């Protein structure tokens, strides 16, 4: 709804500027939200520079030329100093309510757009996902959900490292140590991987065995490949379980060895050589990217002729580029250099570059994590800890409910708290996940938003039981005139523009912040305005319809964040 309001404001402003005898580019209309209006334009500032006139006088002149067409979502346009303010009409408010009720779960969805291939998580299969990994998963999955709601056709992939050095160590470890298959498979893999690294640190001569395994895989040794595959399959099966619990789903798991077997790695190395950028450095083949601003060269082939993860990643990106309109990668800050080098190399050989979302790391109050050293808290352990704490809260708040209900709500609240607390922070900022704060209902995190949705459901259910509400009854949105009612309607109307902004800028935290503000607006409305207790029947029906609207948009927001929307808590 807000996108249409902005489109109408743009058209009205452009016409008024033209009628005032002025010219300006669309990109220089400079719209922004304001506490004084629904939309404000700083166009007069730009025009003042172009025409050497007073911006305040220009704003007044433009407003005097404004003509608002009949049936517009713009009700009034005024000048406030150099700003041109746009105020929504009553039609905009009424249409927002009716549109939410008509579209329900489709409210906020954009028109069909391009196809995107989004890669995220892609953690090495040498153990379970830990907290450091799941920020990647949560950002990536939320972005995919946002992009789909914005209208994009999104395919999500996990790029599986099934032949690098770490996997060689895992394979070597599986041969040397007994796997405890009573454990979750990725945890069993982590146990032997940690033991193997202790052995390798004690006896550096074993490194030659690891190198030999990598060479065997590169030349297609069947037994070694099978050994790698078995280890990777075990780890990935456990990782998939963890992701599913986190409500994260990938459409495809693509093995990097695919591109070695197909010859794509060899082909891309030859094409890079043909650019004249390669040279030999201590026996290794490296790429000079100094003209792209990289002092450090990119190694694409070891001195023994074997490929690197980066080389295979280049081939993977060429394959992706041939299938979709856009490629998006979600990487941790430690990939900042390599992702830049990857993009530069692809550009040098004329292959579509990925858009890269770099995120800073998340940690626990306990500190940083390392699978190699065995110093980590697995995501599974974290989820168990959080849901156990959530269960305690549910038992305190709802002692009369069944055990099944309590466990179900605790899982929804616990996982929701993890997802929300991690995604609410802008990707480029590091964050510490404090599970106690994340579960605090008063802190306005996921439990607060989920509770707001459950409250809306409860109000509607109670109204039905008391025969105070018929969902099919005709409503009169024009009766919703209280300040908190109007604030809630305007906040709901913003949903499509929030999705649009988050999709354009690849910033999922924008939606997280909006969901909290929407819950705030709903709770303020319910606090100050009687709903079921409203004496006038038409007003009561309209206010219940507004509660239903809030329920719908809260549910849509939570769903797009990958968080469950419980009907009761």
Automatic annotation (TrEMBL):
Recorded family membership: Belongs to the class-I aminoacyl-tRNA synthetase family.
The EC designation for this entry is: 6.1.1.19
> Arginyl tRNA synthetase N-terminal domain spans which residues?
7-88
Which UniProt key words apply to this protein?
A: Aminoacyl-tRNA synthetase, ATP-binding, Cytoplasm, Ligase, Nucleotide-binding, Protein biosynthesis
In chain numbering, motif 'HIGH' region lies across 123-133
Instruction: State the CDD domains in the record.
Output: Anticodon_Ia_Arg (cd07956), ArgRS_core (cd00671)
The molecule here is called Arginine--tRNA ligase
- Its primary localisation, in coarse terms, equals cytoplasm
Q: Where in the cell is it found?
A: Cytoplasm
Single GO molecular-function term? Answer: ATP binding
Q: Which GO terms describe its biological process?
A: arginyl-tRNA aminoacylation
Q: Which reaction does it catalyse?
A: tRNA(Arg) + L-arginine + ATP = L-arginyl-tRNA(Arg) + AMP + diphosphate
Matches recorded under InterPro entries: aa-tRNA-synth_I_CS, Arg-tRNA-ligase, Arg-tRNA-synth_N, Arg-tRNA-synth_N_sf, ArgRS_core, DALR_anticod-bd, Rossmann-like_a/b/a_fold, tRNAsynth_Ia_anticodon-bd
**Gene Ontology cellular-component annotations:** cytoplasm
Question: Please, which domain of life does this record's source organism belong to?
Answer: Archaea
Domain DALR anticodon binding: residue ranges: 449-569
Which Pfam families does UniProt cross-reference here? Answer: Arg_tRNA_synt_N, DALR_1, tRNA-synt_1d
- What is its EC class? ligase
